[in-house]
Amino acid sequence: MGSQGGFGQSKEFLDLIKSIGEARSKAEEDRIVIREIETLKRRISEPDIPKRKMKEYIIRLLYVEMLGHDASFGYIHAVKMTHDDNLISKRTGYLAVTLFLNDDHDLIILIVNTIQKDLKSDNYLVVCAALNAVCRLINDETIPAVLPLVVELLSHSKEAVRKKAVMALHSFHRKSPSSVSHLVSNFRKRLCDNDPGVMGATLCPLFDLINDDPTPFKDLVVSFVSILKQVAEHRLPKSYDYHQMPAPFVQIKLLKLLALLGSGDKPASEQMYTVIGDIIRKGDSSSNIGNAILYESIRCVSSIYPNPKLLEAAADVIAKFLKSDSHNLKYMGIDALGRLIKLSPLIAEQHQLAVIDCLEDPDDTLKRKTFELLYKMTKSSNVEVIVDRMIEYMISISDDHYKTYIASRCVELAEQFAPSNHWFIQTMNKVFEHAGDLVNIKVAHNLMRLIAEGFGEDDDAAYSQLRSSAVESYLRIIGEPKLPSGFLQVICWVLGEYGTADGKHSASYITGKLCDMAEAYSNDEIVKAYAITALTKIYAFEIGAGRKVDMLSECQSLVEELLASHSTDLQQRAYELQAVIGLDARAVEAILPHDASCEDIEVDNNLSFLNGYIQQSIESGAMPYISENERSGMGNMGNFRSQDQQESVQHGLRFEAYEIPKAPTPVSLSSVTDLVPVPDSYARETHQITSVGLASDSGSSELKLRLDGVQKKWGKPTYSSPASSSNSTFQNPANGVTKVDVATTVNSKARDSYDSRKQQNEIDPEKQKLAASLFGGSAKPERKTSTSSKVPKASAASVPNKESGEKTNQPPPQDLLDMGEPTITAAPPTVDPFMQLEGLLDPSISSTVSHNDGAVTNAPDIMGLYSGTTSEQKGGGGYIPASGDNLNLLSELSNAAAVRGTPGEVVVPPLSQSVKGANAKDSLEKDAKVRQMGVTPTGQNPNLFRDLLG
Questions:
Q1: Which residue(s) pair with 245 in the sheet?
Q2: Is the CA virtual torsion 223, 224, 226, 231 positive or negative?
């Protein structure tokens, strides 16, 4: 091959490929690749590497990555190669980065600009390479950067570019559907493209859109039928043929689209009947691709509105599949038969012997598929045979996952089609015995409920017969070793409820069995708990019937053992057993009435029956109950904590952006002690409140944080968020599909075709007998599982708590954490803490304060200036003056011009220099410093801390 090799590669590269192929172990292959990595690290960092050499190095990096080693040291060189002007190098670079990188890699940002430039190239090969990279590397964040360019390429002159542009838009739809939701019309246009490749590529995004919602695309049925007809009639070029089948993958995709559009739609389905019938009739079953088209046709027939002729043609194709020697074709036939059984159950009768052969086939996959078919065919006449076969198969397999699946199917069929109570109990015992703890615990609970309630029959004799049968079977099984825990729970419960109900077994015999079971499974606390509860019920029934109770010695030792158990649950049950034995018959019968397992227990969550006792105790001088939160002084915090928890449960994470804080309008307050600015929406309501202490919306006098004017950043907004409508009613649309009864027509024709093709050789009589039990016999009415055989009692109405809604006339104590709103008082304070500051101002100077009610006062509101300046310095949402954020109080007082603003501002003229006494600047500076550093409560103005200290 020479020094350069037959394909322009170096001999070193060819030797690398040869050595990798001849490696005899993974360790040897790793040694070769690690040696190659060291070589590439050394050579790829050399300066002025020729383009031919760099291209070879990038290809060798691809081999390193594909063999499972890290080649990240060369990623940047592959990115640089995408910038090359040479077409071969550029395509090699794009190939490398699409294999090296994923759509969230850090180097993607370096490729977007190159992709944008290449999408505008005049060379369509460069455009195709860039579109290949777009499908792989562009993520939902970079889609807007290339989306307009890709849309323009939908009208490119080259069909290869148009096809790849459609594929790029399809990838965009899968990553971010909202980004291309406005481009659905472009997909419709490309469906009519002159090139079949572009049309075939358009079917893929249309399939995803129709799968989400087929209603807007019902008008495309005519187009799809026309395209499918043209493809089936060989009107496409020969280059689209595969194994002499015309564009088979386009046919399969069109059949899937028609199945979605024709589901439950009779007018749309009628337009498809002809073309689907032609495809089935002309189908070639000699090749795999031909069988694939036939199978997809059967799936389409089973999805659209049923047609008798199409069902008959599909049944003939299924017969060919089932008679084939290939396990793959048999599997397809079983699956297709299961789909058609939903439309006409009698179709399976002509294939009963083939189904039996599949059931006995050594291929495990085919056998499992056959069991799924039998599950769909089950009825009252064949449920015993099918369930027994399932249990036999469940015993033979070791796959726990599939064993659990088979057990759940057996339980479901036994509950729905059980021919007798005895068979049902025996079947459930087999399932529990062989499936063990793999059976869901809900199955055990359902079994206990069915034994207690029966199957919805009103015959008391049937009830007693079912329970007696269960007791007898469990007494036989109880001695077997290693029973699953769930099954033991069922046994204990049934023996406790009905062990002595029929009078065949004495209480001492049943209690002895229960004690033996608890001793045998001493490590299982749940089983011991069920056993001690069963003992309690048996002794209670004996006491209630007036019989003397003689506890066995082993039972007495079990109770003594449980009284000293580390488990509080077992201790409680043991103490309850001792307490029940010591009561009289009347009390025991009231506590544990006989055969009351189906009765509803009335639960009064509010404990309203204690109201009389509570009222009597309070009248006698007892103190009312104080909740734990109130006792710890955190009542209001607990309330808000529970409120936040409720909101988090209702809403979960909130992904919408935070609301921008709204700047509240400054409002002058009626008292100089109300220092906290509040929003205008709340200030309009404050002047209407005259009482001391505000009651909450619910009328409760409990302490709560006042958060009416505070905007929440997490959870539900508190300003204008509407109440969530939790009572919205959603109504599922009923399926309006009307099934066509075509069983008689298809069955008669199927029998004729089957009889005509019947082999002359004699059939095994065992198979005939099994087939007769599976498919023959008249179907009996199905037994439906009832949820309850007795009318449940209405649950006790919950009595509302009257104490929570009562109001008190005492004002609530001040909350140290209440920073949401100012405390509103009915009258101004008797002592003005800032009256001493009036002497600092010129008596001729007056300040005007505008209140909500329009009143004007002459008292200078010094603290209004302080609070305004403080809010400005903190960057709050209050009013910000035009002079800037750094104005202090002294500069504001010395300003010559009065500040004009909205109502609520304080207008202060400049200070007079002729004021006698202390220096105004020194006094105000000292006062500002005191306010900044804090004043002690023992100072001259204790009323400043009245809001805080109460």
A1: 242
A2: positive
What the block records as the tokens of 737 is 């599909």
Looking at per-residue pLDDT, the higher value among 109 and 863 belongs to 109
Taking the mean position of all CA atoms in its chain, how far away is CA 128? 40
> What's the Cα-to-Cα distance from 931 to each of 314, 861, 863, 880, 943, rounded to whole Å?
92, 15, 10, 21, 14
Question: How many alpha carbons lie under 13 Å from residue 391 in its C-beta half-sphere?
Answer: 21
Q: What is the DSSP string of 498-541?
A: HTTTSSSS-HHHHHHHHHHHHHHTTT-HHHHHHHHHHHHHHHHH
From CA 164, how far away is CA 150, in angstroms rounded? Answer: 9
Q: In this structure, is the dihedral angle defined by the CA atoms of residues 768, 771, 773 and 776, taken in order, positive or negative?
A: negative
Contacts for 644 with CB less than 8 Å, ≥ 6 apart: 714, 715
CB 210 within 8 A of CB 257: yes
Strand partners for 856: 850
**764: which 2 tokens?**
């095994």
Do the beta carbons of residue 452 and residue 792 sit within 8 Å?
Answer: no
| Contacting residues for 776 by C-beta, under 8 A, at least 6 apart | 381
**Residue whose structure tokens are 């954490």:** 817
Q: Is 849 helix (H, G, I), strand (E, B) or coil?
A: strand
By C-alpha distance, which of 664, 915, 934, 700 is closest to 805?
Answer: 700
What would the pLDDT profile of 621-677 be if each residue is shown by its tens digit? 998 888 877 776 654 544 445 555 554 444 455 556 666 666 655 544 444 444 444
Burial of residue 586 (CB within 10 Å: 0-12, 13-18, 19+) is: exposed
- pLDDT digit string, tens, across residues 860-885: 444 444 444 443 343 334 433 343 44
Average pLDDT estimate for 367-382: 88
pLDDT in tens, 140-174: 899 999 999 999 999 999 999 999 999 999 999 99
- List the structure tokens of 605: 């969550």
Could you tell me the two tokens for 305? 């509105």
Q: ∠941-822-644 over CA atoms, to 5°?
A: 135
CA 434/CA 495 separation, integer angstroms: 21
pLDDT score, position 806 = 42
Place of tokens 């090139």: 195
Number of H helices, E strands in the chain: 42, 5
CA distances from 770 to 293, 406, 760, 776, 865 (A): 33, 20, 20, 10, 99
Report the alpha-carbon distance of residue 435 to residue 338 in Å, rounded: 26
Which of 29, 61, 31, 30 has the alpha carbon at shortest distance from 43?
61
* Residue corresponding to tokens 């069109």: 254
In DSSP notation, 583-641 reads S-HHHHHHHS-TT-TTSPPP--TT-GGGHHHHHHHHHTTPPPP--HHHHTT-HHHHHHH
Beta bridge partners of 242: 245
- Read off the pLDDT of residues 744-787 as tens digits, 9 standing for 90 and up: 444 444 444 444 444 445 566 776 777 677 666 444 444 444 44
Residues contacting residue 101 through CB under 8 Å, at least 6 positions apart: 75, 107, 108, 137
Buried b (16+ CB within 10 A) or exposed e, 275-306: bbbebbeebeeeeebbbbbbbbbbbbbbbbbb
Count other C-beta atoms under 10 Å from residue 758's C-beta.
10
3-state secondary structure of 359: helix
Q: How far apart, in Å, are the Cα atoms of 80 and each of 93, 107, 143?
A: 8, 11, 22
What SS3 class is residue 941?
A: coil
CB 224 within 8 A of CB 254: yes
CB atoms within 10 A of CB 18: 10
Give the angle 378-380-386 at the CA atoms, nearest 5°: 45
For the chain, give percent helix, strand, coil, nearest 5.
60, 0, 40
CA dist., res. 370 & res. 335, Å (int): 8
13: alpha, beta or left, given left = phi > 0 and alpha = psi -120 to 50? alpha
Helix 124-137 × helix 109-119 angle, to 10°: 150
